[in-house]
Amino acid sequence: MAQSAQLPKQKELFGHPVGLYILFFTEMWERFSYYGMRAILVLYLVAETASGNPGLGWTNAEALSLYGTYTMLVYVSSIPGGWIADKYLGQKRSVLYGGILLVAGHGILAVEQMWAFYTGLGLIIAGVGMLKPNISTMVGGLYKQGDIRRDKGFTIFYIGINLGAFISSLVVGTVGEVYGWHYGFGLAGIGMALGLLQYMLGQKYLKRVGNFLGQSTDPEEIAASKRPLSKIEKDRVIVLLVSFLMVIVFWGAFEQAGGLMNIYASEKTDRILSFSLPFIGNEVPASWFQSLNAMFIILLGTSVAGFWAKRKLKGKTATSLFKMAMGLIIMGSGFFFMTAASAQFQSNGESAMYWLVLAYLFHTIGELCLSPVALSYITKLAPLKYASIMMGVYFAMTGFGNKLAGLLGESASELGEFTIFTGIAVFCILFSLLVLIFRKKLEKLTHGAEDNEREMLEQEEYELADPDIN
């Protein structure tokens, strides 16, 4: 992207700009709050009103319908959030205002009233819309055009996302299920407040990224904000829009984690251990399975990124579209383990926990091949003046995928989990193969956006091999 083509030298830590780690921890706490609330939302909705930890007593279909609509709106709101940043505020201030809205939203959810429940959800939707697309765009802005570290930077950033998700599923999930749903909602708000505080304290490392173009003094940025899109820019936007179809399919399948798979873990999985754990006894809380994805990302994130970097260095296919298609195949294959779990339940009346663990493992590897790569891809191809709104469109596609996930989850009550899980697996694999057939034609429309990455990677490997080169 043009805004990062001539970045001045920045202070670095572990080979990356210090600003990356400011954004890392901001996003970590934002995801702590979001995924913590997500881990208990459906469980709260379906919990009996007369139970020891009363919920709303909704049916599974009603809960999954709200879950799908809510998660869709969370991400669709990224379009107006990106537009506001590009048109009026800039990314940096948009992230700040989004954080404030999120603290307010999660705080209000702690109040045990229906008006507070819907108001809190509304504020969270607005807050994520302001924060999510803009903080991701800022990560890309830390690196100059063609910098091979960009994909690695997004992987580090992505680990931050999932570190927050991992901790929250365990902590917020346990507090919500054991001590009270609204205590869990309130704890999520405290996490977001910590993220907002450290973002404000780290502004000195973000001076050159996320600023409003309308106030820019950089001649290149001023010119880019005024001129119409070139033929190359238009072609690249077309490629991005096509890649977003994969995003919808991917998240439509993946987000069964917070809905159908969450309920499946609660109602049809044998969660009894042969030993007791502190505070919870020998029954694993259903919400804990939400932490598996994040745990696997933390453990495997750098390894997957390293695999693709080595593959590129050897001259093998490792373009963004190829990685994304392979990620969709791997993630889709993970649903075959849920097919096996459903078959076991039909035979024995319950299914083993290891099926969920294996499914989340494959989902995670697929996610690492697709999601951070897609974020980086957008910052490579999106026109400067539409940087945030294109990121917003990406998250909106994620939102549509979330709604699709809710619809698929609802249909399980009629079609059965076996049919839904198997159908998802087959469709994801077939759709990925279709993308691979047209991959080369699509990559021509990027006009070499990734062509110089191998050269930079070879230079990086040479410098690592000879530490005295500088």
Automatic annotation (TrEMBL):
Pfam families per record: PTR2 (PF00854)
Record-annotated membrane-spanning stretches: 64-83, 95-115, 121-143, 155-175, 181-201, 237-254, 288-309, 321-341, 353-375, 387-406, 418-438
Report how it sits in the membrane.
Answer: Multi-pass membrane protein
GO terms of biological process kind: oligopeptide transport
The Major facilitator superfamily (MFS) profile domain extends over 19-443
Compartment(s) of residence: Cell membrane; Membrane
Q: Name one GO molecular function term.
A: peptide transmembrane transporter activity
Record keyword Protein biosynthesis present? no
Instruction: Write down the superkingdom of origin.
Output: Bacteria
- Does the record's keyword annotation contain Transcription regulation? no
Q: Which GO terms describe its cellular component?
A: plasma membrane
**Keywords from the named record:** Cell membrane, Membrane, Peptide transport, Protein transport, Transmembrane, Transmembrane helix, Transport
What family does this chain come from, according to its entry?
Belongs to the major facilitator superfamily. Proton-dependent oligopeptide transporter (POT/PTR) (TC 2.A.17) family.
Read off the NCBIfam families from this record: yjdL_sub1_fam
Name the UniProt record assigns to this protein: POT family proton-dependent oligopeptide transporter
